[in-house]
TrEMBL record:
SUPFAM superfamilies: Ankyrin repeat
Protein name stated in the entry: Uncharacterized protein
Keyword Repeat: yes
Claim: Repeat is one of the keywords in the record: yes
SMART domains cross-referenced by the UniProt entry: ANK (SM00248)
Region (Disordered): 1-40
Organism this protein belongs to: Zasmidium cellare ATCC 36951
Pfam families, A to Z: Ank_2, Ank_4
Gene3D superfamilies: Ankyrin repeat-containing domain
Domain of life (superkingdom): Eukaryota
ANK repeat placement: 38-70, 73-105, 149-181, 184-216, 223-255, 258-290
InterPro entries: Ankyrin_rpt, Ankyrin_rpt-contain_sf, Multifunctional_ANK_Repeat
Bias (Acidic residues): 27-38
PANTHER family (alphabetical): ANKYRIN REPEAT-CONTAINING, PROTEIN HOS4
Length: 317
């Protein structure tokens, strides 16, 4: 889900800007710290906070509605308004020529539609209105996910959890099988599973998501998770059992960086009942997992999880 942090105002000679430090999912040289700062223009800041009079004044003065986002997590004015649920400002920006599909900052590159679809903390009815407005303005419903931490609109909606938005996107042709971003990406099903939106998981399965295809790219990704690994990592027994019933690969390998098997995820979280279910489903007890390439029983011993060690040993691990 998308988190919005309250802006911090800093004073500069000719403008008030927002600056906050964030961490990138990619390695960045210390010398480039200045590039990581988000510097928001007055228009972007006003759009983010919902200040319609100020947005109106700035646009009337000739301010460019398409000033690009700055820094790793910067946003255009339209993206900022979409994330925070300010429909009147969205309408004004679009009428002033805002680019509905402008990419976001370097880490995520999320368009206004992606941000709106995955937003939390705004009324669901407002959210669907904003999604509809952006789509009516020509937003690309199947724009591919940015390679670093990106999402398609549908993936974002499945992560955010608004079933109305998910249904609307699916009804309008959103690709339920769109691949995840290469780094920290999630398919629609993986996103819904990780956030424990069971109603959305059921809808996606009904729409024909094929689990082995959905999870096919995880082992080559960075910080990826299959739907089952995601469910095991949060200890959701109902979801684990549903995904196994639907044909999830109980021994699918984790991603090459920051990943783990479903068994390893259950051990790491201390979810012994999930661990038992995965073992009964035939999980490979000798499969290595995580960055340190430990087996599940090695991971359990390292964590001092005596119950998990006992369960795995009795199963032959």
């Amino acid at each position: 889900m998308f988190m919005h942090h309250p802006p911090t105002i800093q004073h500069f000679p000719q403008a008030e800007c927002l600056a906050s430090r964030t961490n990138s999912t990619e390695n960045v040289d210390d010398d480039d710290e200045e590039e990581q700062e988000e510097t928001w223009s007055p228009l972007q800041l006003a759009a983010s906070s919902g200040n319609l009079p100020q947005v109106t004044t700035l646009l009337s003065s000739g301010i460019n509605p398409n000033a690009p986002p700055q820094g790793w997590y910067g946003k255009t004015a339209l993206q900022a308004a979409a994330l925070n649920g300010h429909l009147p400002i969205i309408n004004l920006l679009l009428a002033s020529g805002a680019n509905v599909d402008a990419p976001g900052g370097n880490n995520g590159g999320r368009t206004a539609l992606v941000l709106a679809a995955g937003a939390t903390g705004i009324p669901p009815e407002t959210q669907i209105e904003i999604v509809d407005r952006l789509l009516a303005a020509g937003a690309d419903i199947n724009r591919p996910a940015h390679k670093y931490n990106g999402r398609t609109p549908l993936q974002a909606a499945c992560e955010g959890g608004n079933l109305l938005v998910v249904r609307r996107l699916l009804d309008l042709g959103a690709d339920v099988r769109a691949p995840a971003a290469r780094t920290a990406g999630r398919t629609a099903l993986q996103a819904a599973s990780e956030q424990q939106h069971i109603d959305i998981v059921e809808l996606l399965l009904l729409k024909g998501v094929i689990l082995h295809q959905d999870d096919s790219g995880v082992s080559h990704s960075r910080s990826g998770l299959t739907a089952l690994q995601a469910a095991a990592s949060v200890g959701n027994m109902l979801l684990v059992e549903r995904l196994l019933e639907a044909g999830a690969d109980v021994s699918a390998p984790g991603s090459r960086y920051g990943g783990c098997s479903a068994l390893g995820a259950a051990v790491e979280g201390g979810f012994v009942e999930v661990l038992r279910v995965l073992i009964r489903a035939g999980a490979n007890l000798n499969q290595t997992t995580g960055n340190h390439r430990r087996t599940a029983i090695q991971e359990a011993r390292m964590r001092g999880s005596l119950e998990s060690v006992r369960i795995l040993r009795e199963a032959g691990g």
